[in-house]
Amino acid sequence: MEVNNTEAAKKKKILINGCLIPTIIVIVVIFLIPLSSSEDKGYSDNDINNLSDSLHINKDSAESILVYNLKRKQTIESSFSALYGYHNGLKNTVKNSLKDPDSFEHVLTKYWDNGDHLIVLMKYRAKNSFGGFVVNVVKAKISLDGKEIIIISQD
Length: 155
Fold this sequence. Notes:
The chain is an alpha+beta fold. It folds into three domains: 1-38; 40-77; 83-154, 2-Layer Sandwich (Dihydrodipicolinate Reductase, domain 2), CATH 3.30.360. The chain has helices at residues 2-37, 45-55, 59-77, 88-97; strands at residues 105-113, 117-127, 133-143, 149-154. The protein has a four-stranded antiparallel sheet with strand order 1-2-3-4. Strand 1 and strand 2 (117-127) form a beta hairpin. The longest helix is centred in the first third of the chain and has 36 residues, at 2-37. The protein is flat and about 85 Å long.
């Protein structure tokens, strides 16, 4: 009898493991694959309907506007550090102009979207000629792709 109980326990264990693992895999496939394969467009059908209604345009035109605005936003945001918030090109321009580039410390960055360009204001600390840290502010006109940087003012 003991042998039969042991064999029955083994068969039960195999049956549980044999069914449990495929069941878990099926659950993962059912719930996780649709989440990873569905693209987040950055806007919803509700956004399309609201824009279409507010501007009195068709839904295709409303979606085109939303796609354009999303790509524009992504282009602008790609010029900024996601971790520190500074504009990458402006930081490099300022840092390369310092007497001690390694002393550069970002304090804060703000920007204004002026349609065809950005106005970016960056506050930073760096060592001066005497070795002391001073706070400086630079303001620049920057193209949307971040490639053209014109310094407007620097304190």
